[in-house]
Design a protein that fits this description.
Blueprint (H helix, E strand, L loop, with lengths): L1 E17 L2 E15 L2 E7 L9 H10 L11 H10 L5 H18 L4 H4 L12 E3 L4 H10 L5 E5 L5 H11 L3 E5 L7 H13 L2 E5 L7 H10 L4 E3 L9 H4 L5 E5 H4 L2 H13 L3 E5 L5 H10 L5 E2 L12 E2 L2 E3 L2 E3 L9 E2 L2
Parallel strand pairs: 4-5, 5-6, 6-7, 7-8, 8-9, 9-10, 10-11
Antiparallel strand pairs: 1-2, 2-3, 12-15, 13-14
Helix pairs in contact: 5-6, 7-8
Bound molecules: magnesium ion.
Magnesium ion binds next to loops.
């Protein structure tokens, strides 16, 4: 098995601003895993909150030695080997995981969803994300997203109410709200959630910092809306620790180390009667296509990372106005654009 990779800079349509930062360009790593004349494609979109960058991804990939394995079919053994290299590097590992699954399903001549046994189950509708911006730009974005039936609104700075009021003047469609750990005071968070329920919001993602678990438990007991964990949950092992603080979890391939662990997270969350969302970072069609294949197993999808960019180097499964379509192509289906 031969690995090679290169950096690619995804360019965003708008500055993407959330409670902890903003960006206009998102550097990613595209990985190729070659074996037996088949190429599996993987992707890392490193998350700075978890101390990753394109440099740390590249450094990690340099120390990975897959020559000790005979083929990508040894996925479980390869995962145990990668576990032995230590924790962290989740986006770097995601690139390897996606490339392995792409390779294996290509070798078996199957679309990824069929390889995973998901078959033809329907996909959920994806939300479209509106980042924090001036009210004028937010208004423009909401108009542009007219055909998307569900919007996910980023809040968590100092003008949450203003943002929601601006959007509610334009549309009464389903809104989901993501505070990205932006609310620090549990009493303030509780008041905001009450107000948001009156604005017909469906649920709240990560209202408070992951480090304030006791406050989150308190908040969940009193909250009139379901709370979904994002920054508080990385892997299946972290779900039991947060189950009293949230009603559901947001799985992202870049946090989970890829599909292998994402499936474990789905099973763990189901066993605990929690709701499941499948989200993403700013990503190309490699990672988004992979997630779309998995999406029939979850309750909510937020897979718009490749819709927010202008220079996707790949084409694969589509998010068309929120409708996720698994294309009839082997592997995860993402191939380089010509
Ligand atoms: Mg989130």
């Amino acid at each position: 098995m031969k690995l090679s990779w290169k950096q690619f800079n995804l360019e965003l349509k708008y500055i993407f601003k959330i409670a902890r930062g903003a960006s206009l360009v998102e550097p990613i790593i595209i990985l190729e895993l070659e074996h037996d004349g088949i190429i599996g494609y993987g992707e890392s979109s490193p998350i700075s909150r978890y101390h990753e960058s394109v440099e740390t991804v590249s450094d990690f990939l340099k120390i990975v030695d897959l020559s000790r394995f005979e083929s990508p079919f040894q996925l479980e053994e390869i995962n145990r080997y990668l576990d032995s290299l230590g924790s962290g590097n989740t986006a770097a590992r995601c690139a390897i995981d996606l490339a392995l699954y792409d390779w294996v399903s290509k070798k078996l001549n199957l679309p990824l969803s069929k390889y995973l046994g998901i078959g033809n189950l329907p996909t959920p509708v994806s939300s479209f994300t509106i980042g924090i911006d001036t009210l004028e730009i937010i208004e423009k974005k909401v108009h542009e997203a007219e055909k998307y039936p569900i919007l996910k609104i980023k809040v968590g700075l100092d003008n949450d109410e203003e943002i929601i009021r601006t959007i509610r003047k334009i549309t009464d469609k389903v809104l989901r709200v993501d505070a990205n750990e932006g609310w620090r005071d549990k009493f303030v968070a509780l008041e905001k959630i009450k107000w948001l329920k009156d604005q017909n919001v469906e649920f709240i993602e990560q209202p408070m910092p992951a480090s304030q678990l006791d406050d989150l438990k308190w908040l969940r007991e009193k909250s009139v809306l379901p709370l979904i964990a994002d920054e508080s949950v990385m892997s299946s092992k972290s779900i039991p620790q947060i189950k009293d603080a949230f009603d559901g979890i947001n799985i992202k391939l870049m946090k989970s180390t890829g599909l292998h662990e994402a499936i474990k997270m789905i099973n763990t969350a189901r066993a605990m009667n929690m709701k499941i969302m499948l989200g993403c970072m700013i990503e190309s069609s490699v990672a988004i296509s992979s997630a779309i294949h998995l999406s029939p197993l979850v309750d909510y999808a937020d897979l718009d990372g490749n819709v927010l960019i202008t220079n996707d180097p790949f084409e694969g499964c589509e998010n068309k106005n929120g409708k996720l379509k698994i294309i009839d192509r082997i592997g995860h289906g993402a191939i380089p654009k010509k």
